[in-house]
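Researcher: Going back to the complex we discussed earlier. I've cleaned up the inputs and rechecked each line, so this should be the final set. Can you rerun the prediction on the complete assembly and write out the structure?
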Amino acid sequence: MEPMRVLLLGAGGVGSAAVAIAARRDFFEQVVVADYDPGRAARAAAVGDARFSAVGLDASTPGAVAAACREHRVTHVLNAVDPRFVMPIFEGAFAAGAHYLDLAMSLSRPHPTEPYRRVGVKLGDEQFAAADRWVGANRLALVGIGVEPGLSDVFARYAADRLFGRIDEIGVRDGANLVVDGYDFAPSFSIWTTIEECLNPPVIYEHDRGWYTTEPFSEPEVFEFPDGIGRVECVNVEHEEVVLIPRWVNSGRVTFKYGLGREFIDVLRTLHKLGLDGTRPVRAGGVEVAPRDVVAACLPDPATLGDRMYGKTCAGTWVRGAGKDGAARESYLYHVVDNAWSMREYGHQAVVWQTAVNPVIALELLAEGAWRGSGVLGPEAFDPQPFLDKLVEYGTPWGITNR
Amino acid sequence: MEPMRVLLLGAGGVGSAAVAIAARRDFFEQVVVADYDPGRAARAAAVGDARFSAVGLDASTPGAVAAACREHRVTHVLNAVDPRFVMPIFEGAFAAGAHYLDLAMSLSRPHPTEPYRRVGVKLGDEQFAAADRWVGANRLALVGIGVEPGLSDVFARYAADRLFGRIDEIGVRDGANLVVDGYDFAPSFSIWTTIEECLNPPVIYEHDRGWYTTEPFSEPEVFEFPDGIGRVECVNVEHEEVVLIPRWVNSGRVTFKYGLGREFIDVLRTLHKLGLDGTRPVRAGGVEVAPRDVVAACLPDPATLGDRMYGKTCAGTWVRGAGKDGAARESYLYHVVDNAWSMREYGHQAVVWQTAVNPVIALELLAEGAWRGSGVLGPEAFDPQPFLDKLVEYGTPWGITNR
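Model: Rerun complete. Updated structure for the full complex:
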């Protein structure tokens, strides 16, 4: 195989953590870190390792992305920028003949008349529409390979392969007990993305009904997370797993619930009520600006909060059905990162580190040939065992609790 | 007495409503409506009555205000612009030998080190510092003569004169059940100003302690408003009555609580928590913009909402102590305006109409000689009876409920 040369787009929290993680591995020849802000790219690439270089790049057009791929002889594009830029990067990688990985899929658009009942354009629909082209070109677009989507999908496939004979429901459940010292309110993940996913109509899959939507924050439940995190209120949120898992794993129902907690839900509801979640520019103080950009600008950059953050974050997949022996079974496959550990070991906070480790593992599996494929594929399209083995090898174990 | 000639500064909601109210009275010779925007002044003055004229005027310097007073032989200046301009208008009127009335007093500045415990510069301090000059010139500055401050102070004096032998507490309480059709959230007054007054440290007076401050939104209580408005959650807010009433009325304690309601309080708290109340520009989406301006831009302009507004607004003064007979007594003196009535009768929404009627009545009492005085005086320095009689005569009765 030709040596792997990666164009890593986005030197934010996740991109920077991916550099720190990849720097300890030897499966690649070059990682070019690209960001709209060249200084930010340079800071992320400055890990004292000549295999990392930095460029400034505006990822909003396929042409610019393709040109960067050609200039740096890129074999794999890893997209770690916000999901508005999925399509130009996805198309730019394709145009340049590179393989492609992302952590979030092309955006949804609500149903025009029944947004809280029916799906409109679903997450990833634009990408899946191009699947035949990618197969034809013998190129792989591995979509949704962060932690959620990503590791959560790997867990779903593992459960189907190894643990269950019949699956009635798969529910991805994400919760944390992280707190940030010195701030009244400091989300540990991009508020722009959080607003996007939490205020869109949540999507649910049912075998007999297909995909449908509900009101935001629907079906609240208190989920008990392992490793001392404990009980957290979770609500339905639009997420890629719900559109990915049913394509490769047979399940009666698939949901995603996010452990936002009461305070965060209230903040999101208020932003929505005042129109401050909007992405269409408004005229204010003599300039045109999108309200959501102003909300993001007022909050601290989550990537800078690691030193003031305490606690653990948990991602995982809860599965209910019958085991291989036919007996009723309920299991939660999970991965926990303690912020104190990720800060000490990598200098990156738990949430971004947990997201970043997965695409690095995937790249390593692709470099080694353990994972291979073409077309537009989710993580559950691949054998989960080598992925989970790598996770342990990277020093960050996963677990199962049976209920 | 010489004929009354008024310079009305500010042709916004309150100034325009004051014109509509004064046009039905005959106590004055001339009202010159002045605004920074000459077109807005002309629109407000266009009531088909030759006693009203319009001029453009920048009220930010005393010299410009004094020149306009001299040019139009003004006897009384009525200041209905935003409180940032109180001092130049107050000084300009004095320089021209005119009497002066306003609806809000000179601004406060928080205590530099203990903003939520001690007062710094209080509302009106700059004006009261000039009181001796006004007495010496035999001119009157009647400060805070809108509805709150204004009518609320008249109620306090009435309670002391007629109803109570001993007053333990005077609490101005403002609440409404106004709703605006077609919006999830549409404040009926400027959100910019509401944020300003609600996030300043609220001031409280106690006989044994003097004036002191608390945290914003302190001492929440549910107050029962009359006339079908019902129970509304009220919190402490910085307001002029707390600095005016104790100067002329003996009370153990004076507070002002605003019936913002739970939803509005939550919105303001959330804006503050996220830094979206800030007036210092932040960099967002490639431009510099003050977050508070973006919040205001996302909401509808309250001046345009009168036709879509329903409900009533109530201003009043709650008094607790002992009656003239020595028995425990608790009374709420109040004034309610139904938006349907003020729109039908005057074409102005309830909140601005209720503010505007009071300075017109005060001018009429001054013209008739029923109220007279010199120096810097609050509404509670005068006999309340003729004022309350005029309120009834103007077709907008007041009431008392005993509890």
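Model: Worth noting: The two ends of chain A are 44 Å apart (CA to CA).
Researcher: Good, that matches what I expected from the previous run.
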